[in-house]
């Protein structure tokens, strides 16, 4: 799945920047991104949500390096782009697996004003579980890690619990909607 609303100049009441997991296709992936943005659309109204996937290689070397450097920079740049183009939107930074590393890395690159602009950050299957998301307030941050997910424990084994985050789409969408209220 691919989503390019920000690249296409779309402004909506909410904007989601999403980084897919390692080896996933498109710029949104399939396992977590699409169910999450669909759930947010159901909560907020589909016409109220702009979605931009992060175009980055999503390869294993990037994961092993702590998250693709170029993708991390791109996500941070997109925060600035959205802030300038759509100053009233509620911005959500989100990612799955290596995409979660990008959220952490990008958040640490933001200015104070950009950090304050972030409405919420949601990470599924977070390899950097337990670490802050830049200076984004803990109350605006939700990290979802399943019991038995080795990636969330700092490992590199993709086990079944790492592949089932679609089941948390509704919970994550409720958090995002609440943070935006």
From TrEMBL:
> Under the cellular component aspect of Gene Ontology, which terms does the record hold?
extracellular region
Summarizing the function annotation, the protein's role is:
Catalyzes the hydrolysis of complex carboxylic polyesters found in the cell wall of plants. Degrades cutin, a macromolecule that forms the structure of the plant cuticle.
| Protein family according to the UniProt entry | Belongs to the cutinase family.
What protein is this chain from? Cutinase
Which reaction does this enzyme catalyse, per its entry?
A: cutin + H2O = cutin monomers
Q: Which GO terms describe its molecular function?
A: cutinase activity
EC number(s) recorded for this UniProt protein = 3.1.1.74
The protein's organism comes out as Lophiotrema nucula
Keyword Disulfide bond part of the UniProt annotation: yes
Provide this UniProt record's keywords sorted from A to Z: Disulfide bond, Hydrolase, Secreted, Serine esterase, Signal
Question: Per the annotation, which location comes first and is thus the protein's main one?
Answer: secreted
Q: According to the UniProt record, which cysteines are disulfide-bonded?
A: 11-86, 145-152
> Which residues participate directly in catalysis?
97, 149, 162
Report the locations given in the UniProt record: Secreted
- Top EC class per UniProt? hydrolase
GO biological process assignments: carbohydrate catabolic process
């Amino acid at each position: 799945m691919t989503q390019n609303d920000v690249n296409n100049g779309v402004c909506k009441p909410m904007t989601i920047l999403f980084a897919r997991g390692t080896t996933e296709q498109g710029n949104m992936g399939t396992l977590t991104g699409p169910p999450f943005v669909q759930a947010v659309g159901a909560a907020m109204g589909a016409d109220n949500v702009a979605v931009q996937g992060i175009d980055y290689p999503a390869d294993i070397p990037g994961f092993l390096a702590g998250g693709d450097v170029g993708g991390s920079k791109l996500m941070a740049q997109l925060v600035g782009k959205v802030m300038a183009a759509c100053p009233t939107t509620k911005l959500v930074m989100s990612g799955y697996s290596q995409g979660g590393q990008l959220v952490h890395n990008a958040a640490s690159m933001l200015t104070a004003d950009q950090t304050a602009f972030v409405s919420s950050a949601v990470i599924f299957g977070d390899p950097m579980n337990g670490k802050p998301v830049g200076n984004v307030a803990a109350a605006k941050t939700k990290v979802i890690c399943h019991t038995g997910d080795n990636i969330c424990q700092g490992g590199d084994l993709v086990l079944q619990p790492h592949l089932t985050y679609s089941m948390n789409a509704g919970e994550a969408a409720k958090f995002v909607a609440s943070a935006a209220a």
